[in-house]
Amino acid sequence: MRLFDPHIHMTSRTTDDYAAMHQAGVRALVEPSFWVGQPRTSVETFVDYFDGLVGWEPFRAAQYGIRHHCTIGLNPKEANDPRCREVLDILPRYLAKDGVVAVGELGYDAMTAEEDEVFAAQLALAVEHELPALVHTPHRDKIAGTRRTLDVVRESGIAAEHVVVDHLNEVTVDLVADTGCWMGFSIYPDTKMDEERMVTLLQEYGTERMLVNSAADWGKSDPLKTAKTAQAMLKAGFTDDDVDTVLWHNPVAFYAQSGKLDLDGDTDIPVDRSATFAGNSILRGARPES
Amino acid sequence: MTRKTSPDELHVLLGTRLTGEGEQWLTAALDRTRQDRAAIGALFPAAGRRCGRGPLLDVESSRPPDPRFRGWTVDDAARTLMMAALPLHGTDLGDEVAALYRYGDAAEKRGVLRGLGPLDTDGKLGDHALPLVHDGLRTNDTRLITAALASYGARYLQPAAYRQGVLKCVFLGIPLADIAGLDERADAELARMLTDYARERRAAGRDVPADVLGLVDPTDITLSREA
C-alpha cells in the first residue's frame, strides 16, 4: 500500500515518525507552511522557516525514503499582526521554487478585515503563479467561516479544481461538495474527524475529489492517520483500488496541477544515509564517511 | 593569470546544452529581466526546472574540458546570465544579487556565488558581493564553499580569508582542483598552514591528501615533535 499525506507538518515531528510513516506505506507528503504554535514577530523568521521547508526538511524526509513538497503562504492567525504582513512581499520568490506545489495554508481564523485582505491577495498570487491553493476552514464558527471562505474563493477567479478546502466534517462537507473544489479531511485522535466517520463520508460522497490527511503537527496528533484510514476503508469493504484513489491518486492529481510535483515515477526512492545537508547529517555522533 | 569568463562566452557554451524549449524559456526570461528588475525574483528559482540541472561541460566531448567551467551546471550558467541581464550597476546590482542569495535555496545560492565572477568581468560589480562569499564560506555545505571559492572569491577575498577557505576545503575533502586562484594566491603562509595540517595527519597515522602534498615541501612534513 502506497500512501500520500497531503497535509502534515513534519518540521514539528521526529525522525521516529518518518521511520514509522515509511513503514506504514507513506512515500510522499506535502507540508503546508502554518502557525508554529507561538506567534512570530518578524518577516525574517518566516524567511528562515520557508528556507527550512524547501531545504532541510525535504532532505530529512528523503533520508527515510519519503518525497517532501510544501506549500507556502501567510497563515490567517499571523496575517493579523502588522509586523508579519510584509511576508506577502517575499512570497513570489518562494512560490517559484521547485518543491512548492501550492499556496497555503490560507483561510480564516477570527474572520477579521485583515484576514480578508491577506486571503484575497494570496488567492491572486495563486492565480498569477498558476498554483493550486490549500485553504483551511476555521476552527471556530466553522459553518459561517466555510461559507465566507467559498465566497472569497469564487470572487478571486481561481479555478475551483485548483482549490482544496480542508478540515471539513459532516456539517461543512455539503457546502463544498457541489462547488468543484477538492474536499480535505484531517483525521485527528480527538478533534476534527476520525477514521470511522471518514469512512462513512466516503460511502456517502464517493471517492472523487476527496483528500484525507493527518495534519499532524506539534499538538496531539498522529502521523499514521492516513494509514489507519486506509485500514478502516478496507475493513468497511472498500477495495485496494479505492484506497489507492483516495490516498495516492487524488493528492497526486491535485498537487500535480502545480506542474512541480516530482515523484520521479517511482515511489521507492533510494536512501543515502551518508548524505549531508548544508554539512549537517541526521546521524548523531558520527560524521558520514566521505 | 586565469582568463576571465564573460557572460557572452557562457551564453555560447550554455546554448549547446539547452533543449529548444529551455532556450526559448531562457530568451524570454532574459528579456523580462532586462525590462523589469523585479521579474528575476520569480524567474531565478525556476532555472533548474526550465533549463536543466546537468553539467555545463559536455562529458562526452573529445575536447579537453575547460577548467574554468569545472563543476558548473546548466542552471548555474542560466542564473548567471539572468543576473548579467539585470539593468543595474554597482551598489544596486550588489543589492539585488544579495537578495537573490538571501532568498535562494542551495542551488540558487550556488548559482549566485559561481556567477559573481562572470558578472564582474568588466568590474561592474566590484567587491559589493563579497559578504555573500563570506556567508558561503561560513556554511558547511561543500557545494556552497566550492562556489564561494570560484573566480570572484579568488579575486576579492583578503589573503587571510582566502587561506582559511582553502584550509576548510582540505578539511571537508573538497578537491583543490575545484577551486579558483590557487596558482596566483598560494603563498608562504598557506604553505605553512598546510604543512602543519599534513604533519598533524601524519602524527595521527592518517594519509595526507595528494593535492595537499603538491603544495607543501615533503621534507617539512616528516614526523617531528614541536619543541
From TrEMBL, chain A:
It comes from the Bacteria. InterPro entries: Metal_Hydrolase (IPR032466), TatD-like (IPR001130), UCP005295 (IPR012022). The keyword RNA-binding does not apply. Keywords: Hydrolase, Metal-binding. Pfam families: TatD_DNase. One of its GO terms (molecular function) is hydrolase activity, acting on ester bonds. Belongs to the metallo-dependent hydrolases superfamily. This is TatD DNase family protein. The lineage of its organism: Bacteria, Bacillati, Actinomycetota, Actinomycetes, Actinomycetes incertae sedis.
From TrEMBL, chain B:
It comes from the Bacteria. InterPro entries: EboA_dom. This is Sugar phosphate isomerase. It comes from Halopolyspora algeriensis.
